[in-house]
Amino acid sequence: MNILIAAVVLILGLGLILFLTRVGRKKADPVDSVNQANANVDTNSKNTDSDRDRISDYDEIHKYGTDPHSYDTDKDGIGDRQEILQRTDPNSPDTDRDGLTDYEEAQAGTDPTHYDTDRDGVSDLNDKD
Questions:
Q1: Residue 80 class from Cβ within 10 Å (0-12 exposed, 13-18 middle, 19+ buried)?
Q2: pLDDT digits (tens, 9 = 90+) for 1-12
Q3: What pLDDT is attached to residue 121?
Q4: Is 54 exposed, middle or buried (0-12, 13-18, 19+ CB in 10 A)?
Q5: Is residue 70 within 8 Å of 91, Cβ to Cβ?
Q6: Quick one: pLDDT band at residue 81, thresholds 50, 70, 90?
Q7: What gap in Å lies between CA 38 and CA 63, rounded to an integer?
Q8: Residue-wise pLDDT tens digits, 47-80
Q9: If pLDDT is split at 50, 70 and 90, which confidence band does 25 have?
């Protein structure tokens, strides 16, 4: 019986230690990462373009909220400038949130700004026609 109680106390103690070590760790916040990267950018210069996407770092930070150090902020395969020109969200890989990335929609010929391109009541992801 004493061995059983000791085992339970040991397991509870280990669980508490694991819990406390996880609580103490701060998860990386993607917004903080972008903000830290942006802290090193000369935001007063509208001529600087760190990622060479033809959008100034100033506009990426203050107008579009994109990462001035990344050609494709949302990593969907379409550059920030092209997404802005196409009126898709350069900060979201899936502008219309239908389950297909903007790039996949471009390849499929569907509209990345509408959940149901042909308006038949079936999302682009599930539409077979």
A1: buried
A2: 778 787 777 777
A3: 93
A4: exposed
A5: no
A6: very high
A7: 13
A8: 899 999 999 999 999 999 999 999 999 999 999 9
A9: low
Total-model pTM: 0.64
Integer Cα distance of 82 and 63 in angstroms: 15
Q: What CA–CA distance (Å, rounded) separates 53 from 72?
A: 9
Residue with tokens 């210069």: 45
Distance CA 107, CA 94 (A): 13
Two structure tokens written together for 32: 């903080």
- Paired tokens of 46: 């509208």
Residues contacting 123, CB < 8 A, separation 6+: 98, 99, 115, 116
119 contacts 111 by C-beta, under 8 angstroms:
no
